[in-house]
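Changelog note: in this version the structure field was regenerated for every chain. One regenerated record is shown below for reference.
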Amino acid sequence: MKYLFFLFPLAFVLLFSTCKNSDDEMMPGNANLALNFKASYGEAPLTMFEREYAYEDGMAIKMQLFQFYLSEVRLLNGSEATPLMDISLISFGDVYTDEDAAKGKSTTPATAPAGTYTGIEFGFGVSPELNATIPPNYALGHPLSENYWEAASSYIFFKFEGNADLESNGDFSEKLTFHVGGNDNYRKLTFDKPITIEDGKDLMLQFNIDLQKILVDSNTGEYLDFRQVTQSHSNSSPSATFMANHLAEAIEME
């Protein structure tokens, strides 16, 4: 009888252990995944304030701010999409040196299921669903607690600010301010490139964004003429549409 009492709990332990091991084998595991963006202007690293960038028709510019939102970041596996993060703000406003530029700016890491994926997609700007919200909906420090354009009932999807030398005389006194928002300027971008995520191994996906390709059409040579327009705070302005339409060409995944 003592043997029976001994065998019963032993069998229970073995059964529990077997089930546990089976469950563990079925679990795909997770890893931390982040997106890193390095900004450039043509071949030169994008840095704030000091560096001069040659622009079209003898003009030149200096940068003060470049930032943008990413939303609805999803891992792709054929027709299936795995959500990673809803919103993230990438700002190069404190990138002052080439060393800073080489580090890039990263999203907050998100938990991603281990596995092999066919690509990744994200929206450049704020998705229409999130763009229907307002800063008071969020705690301080949340990406959507700022950068709201009340008059347009929209977040500012991306900002480009700087100064221009319009006469090739070294005088960078012309202020450049371009703020773009509005659902019509939201762009969803897809990158078809195999991604393998291993259990417990952090992964950083690298992206490059070239501001020159946002301001200058590399195919036609058309560009934003700062002698004609130096600022835009309208979601429907030609300059806002021009920049939004060139985002796909400006971003590449390594």
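Spot check on this record: The longest strand covers residues 60-77. The radius of gyration is 24 Å.
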